[in-house]
Design goal:
The complex is a heterodimer of chains A (214) and B (221). With 214 residues, chain A is an all-alpha fold. Chain A is built from eight helices and no strands. The longest helix of chain A is centred in the N-terminal third of the chain and has 37 residues. Chain B is flat, with a radius of gyration of 21 Å. The termini of chain B are far apart. Chain A: Belongs to the binding-protein-dependent transport system permease family. HisMQ subfamily. Chain A: This is ABC transporter permease subunit. Chain A: Keywords: Amino-acid transport, Cell membrane, Membrane, Transmembrane, Transmembrane helix, Transport. Chain A: GO terms for molecular function: transmembrane transporter activity.
Chain lengths: 214, 221
């Protein structure tokens, strides 16, 4: 493989990382809202949130992507395929992240919240100083896991015409007639990215653990 | 554009055959992946060190790369090393390999969670190695790992949609094609999404039912 082609693969890998990162960030924001709605005592909020989570976790991502990509023009929304892909990935990961966050918030020890009550913290202070930091720390491993899942799942957006790592490998193997080479290189790049994210995740966990023991 | 669902129903025979493909490919691939995953986990635990390292690499590579890339390598790369497969066998093999890596990790955790005292006790009363595996390890582990096995099987159910990309005639491919031919792609995909949703919810419900039945046999730790 010439350097030029390898550079193209690396550029496409960058796009995969970029699109995944944006989707994870938007998904986290939506996930927080969905999680808050699901934990709410009001049925009007919790039931739609439950349906959202069940729906987006129960439908294959490929079907979601195909549907969103074709539904937007029908609704009169014309956006580039990159935006449609980010929308699809974000909506899907939001459902998984909402569940992870819910697990985190539910695992905050009751005693800590009672103690915060006793020292007269307002509900908002409790959320900001006790529940949210602890829930976030508990959710971090699941978040890193979700990042890796989305990095791999982003290969599916090649189907709706976004040029990312998988699509680039597809195009180059079609034009050079060397699928073994290009899919292996693409696989190796995915592997390295996933390892880097996993390594960064365990580093962050270790840093947070030393932070908490002080 | 109007939304018209009746179009999809006219193609029912085709859809039913695609549904059958989705279901049998899912079940066969899941069973094969569970068996292969168990063998990988057992060899990693009880085999020599070099084999453990080799299988660890296998598991890491499969789990660190997208399923789609693995399928492309097998289906489009295979013919270059003398492995020309039709879409359905390629999909079955790809899904078995993909699933086996995840199942082997579940079994690995299961092996580690079995209290060593149980195995030692079995050795003390004179059970052979084969008997220990058959009567202690496998039944105890089945109980421990069942929830994760069900979970992974459901993930594989959803992954069968990806097989449409290598032209396996399963639900997503057939329903998508009908939708395009009839200029009713959004309707077709909406029906498909609802259908997968129902399938996943029903499988999850059946899995929880099985867990409840089997949890009667929980052992003491």
């Amino acid at each position: 493989m010439s350097t030029r082609l390898f550079e193209l693969m690396l550029w496409a890998a960058g796009k995969t990382v970029l699109l995944s990162a944006i989707s994870i960030a938007i998904g986290l924001a939506i996930g927080l809202l969905v999680c808050a709605a699901k934990l709410s005592p009001r049925k009007l909020l919790s039931i739609p949130a439950t349906i959202y989570v069940s729906l987006f976790r129960g439908v294959p991502l490929l079907v979601q992507l195909l549907l969103i990509y074709n539904l937007l023009p029908v609704l009169g929304i014309m956006v580039p395929s990159d935006v449609a892909a980010i929308a699809g990935l974000s909506l899907c990961t939001a459902a998984y992240q909402a569940e992870n966050l819910r697990g985190g918030f539910n695992s905050v020890p009751r005693g800590l919240i009672e103690a915060a009550d006793m020292v007269g913290m307002s509900p908002w202070q409790q959320l900001r100083r006790i529940r949210a930091p602890i829930a976030f720390r508990l959710t971090l491993p699941a978040l890193v896991n979700e990042m890796i899942l989305i990095l791999k799942a982003s290969s599916l957006i090649s189907v709706v015409g976004v040029i990312e790592l998988t699509r680039m490998a597809q195009n180059l193997s079609a034009s050079t007639f060397r699928p073994l080479l290009f899919y292996s290189v693409a696989g190796a790049i995915y592997l390295v990215i996933c390892w880097l994210v996993a390594g960064g995740g365990s580093l962050a966990e270790r840093l947070m653990r030393t932070g908490s023991s002080r | 554009m109007s939304i018209d669902f009746s179009i999809v129903w006219q193609q029912l025979p085709q859809i039913l055959s695609a549904f059958w493909n989705t279901i049998w490919i899912w079940i066969v691939a899941t069973i094969l992946a569970v068996l292969l995953g168990f063998v990988v986990a057992a060899l990693r635990r009880y085999g020599p060190l070099w084999l453990n390292l080799l299988l660890r690499l296998y598991v890491e590579v499969i789990r660190g790369t997208p399923f789609l890339i693995q399928l492309f390598l097998l289906y489009f790369g295979g013919p270059f090393i003398g492995l020309s497969l039709e879409p359905i066998p390629a999909g079955l093999i790809g899904m078995t390999i993909y699933g086996s890596a995840y199942f082997s990790e579940i079994f690995r955790a299961g092996f580690a969670a079995i209290p060593p005292g149980h195995v030692e006790a079995a050795e003390c009363v004179g059970l052979s190695r084969g008997q220990i595996v058959r009567r202690i390890l496998v039944p105890e582990m089945a109980m421990l790992v069942l929830p994760q096995l069900v979970n992974m099987a459901i993930i594989l159910m959803k992954e069968t949609a990806i097989l449409s990309i290598i032209t396996v005639p399963e639900l997503t491919l057939v329903v998508g094609a009908i939708g395009s031919q009839q200029y009713a792609f959004v309707e077709a995909m909406t029906m498909l999404a609802l259908f997968y949703w129902a399938l996943v919810e029903i499988s999850g419900w059946l899995g929880r039912l099985a867990e409840k039945k089997l949890s009667k046999f929980r052992f003491a730790v």
